[in-house]
């Protein structure tokens, strides 16, 4: 019996690999000799680097970069081990260098925050010979349309007098020219894949500034200023790709416009995060011939069907007609939407009333106990099916 365990992390509690190990421990109490395949998963957000490094036997690279406000901060990215493509791949979470969590709530100001540190992570990967980079967008503190990242990569963003524009979204309004003659020489050789799970354009009422600006500290006046600055940036940047509609591309507004910059200047491709992760770690091949796939995340609800890890795992397993069971820390409203999509069953792990601290600290043991119960039900089902089949055979054998 082959069982694939492909969960996301349980945020603030367990990494995806730790979740997979706890599930395996519970299942082994009933099926000690099964063939278990652990495939840590993610959807492009927090935990993606760790999950993909764990799944492929890669390594985490630690370095200091420039944070959203310009101060030096510790950051990281991953270099994957064995992948289905056979190429050397780096995976970067934008939030690790330019994340909202890196800025104190009273200091959040998307007029000045910069994505420069994300560019520094890219530079380090390029200097190590990496020519395929996966970037997870989300959780950013910035609204600079990736201008900071472009500066780090060697692009010169200049005003009318030929000096560099200020960092942050507000500085874009002064942009007059973009010079790429000094950018990193290996950028043109690098393939960029972007994990993006939003379809917002760069500008307008559904754009980066209007939709995501307020959570980054923008007032209504700032939103108007930022939207104008991003629109101006797009107009100046048009000659670089000869397409004056790119800022309308779904996903261009992701991460404060970072999606726009990577597509326009780095020729990146936007894809759902869980799809990129699944392809990189070879989930489909692992699911072939499996008896069961188990997935999960901290919370399963009605939003899970929109590109979250359990939905991506379900869709992959369905290609091979393998049943899928979901395990979650808790179930939210409309969690049964996953059942309607074809998931066999969903199990929450919290056994009783508890504080949040207790829930987080007891996640591993609760996962193990729930998994053991799932395995016990599986064994009972197998026994009942055998008995029913045997009974039918006996009846058929009667003269």
From TrEMBL:
Superkingdom: Bacteria
Please provide the record's keywords in A-Z order.
Kinase, Transferase
What start-end ranges are recorded for coiled-coil regions in this protein?
Answer: none
Q: Which GO terms describe its molecular function?
A: kinase activity
* NCBIfam families assigned to the protein according to its UniProt record, in alphabetical order: glycerate kinase
Q: Which family does it belong to?
A: Belongs to the glycerate kinase type-1 family.
Q: Which PANTHER family does the record associate with it?
A: GLYCERATE KINASE (PTHR21599)
Question: What is the protein's name according to its record?
Answer: Glycerate kinase
Record organism: Shewanella subflava
